[in-house]
From TrEMBL:
<feature type="signal peptide">
    <location>
        <begin position="1"/>
        <end position="17"/>
    </location>
</feature>
<protein>
    <recommendedName>
        <fullName>ShKT domain-containing protein</fullName>
    </recommendedName>
</protein>
<dbReference type="InterPro" id="IPR003582">
    <property type="entry name" value="ShKT_dom"/>
</dbReference>
<dbReference type="Pfam" id="PF01549">
    <property type="entry name" value="ShK"/>
</dbReference>
<feature type="domain" description="ShKT">
    <location>
        <begin position="112"/>
        <end position="149"/>
    </location>
</feature>
<keyword id="KW-0732">Signal</keyword>
Amino acid sequence: MILLAVALFPIFPAIEIITIKDDHNCTEWNPNGFVYSWQAVACQNVADESFCKSIYPSTVYPAIGGGENRPMQCYSSPSTPPGTIDQDAKGAAIAGCPRTCGYCCQTHAFSCQDKNENMACWTVTQAQCISPKWRDFFTEECPATCGYCDDCYDLNPECPKAPGVFFWLQKTYNTGQ
């Protein structure tokens, strides 16, 4: 019987469940393990897409429901053991290439608090957040869940790429300076 099992092993290799192993930020648990939540990729890269993919090379990038590890360079550096989270490397990825690395939920757009403890914001879907019918409501009640913590979330599509300019403009025009 053991000989038969050894003989069949090459035909039926062990099935491995794909799951994120090292950094679980912007993930959620499902029956197959940790997978990326929609908030992991709910933003644009600040840097150019081709630049991000060149400094964070991978064959598969974070995607909603995906369980593959994000590129290790997104959170680790050559000076740390493989799989160890290096906060400087991770901070650079969040600042420049959050979508490529699956860190959108770690950006400023998701850094505030949802307003109402009685509102089940964790159940809100991406479709609800961006729905014209519900967007104003969720912007007020669930800004952290929906990624609406930035003051200029919908005023200019370039806003996330130059927050300093837009905050200066807002301050200047709001105070009349």
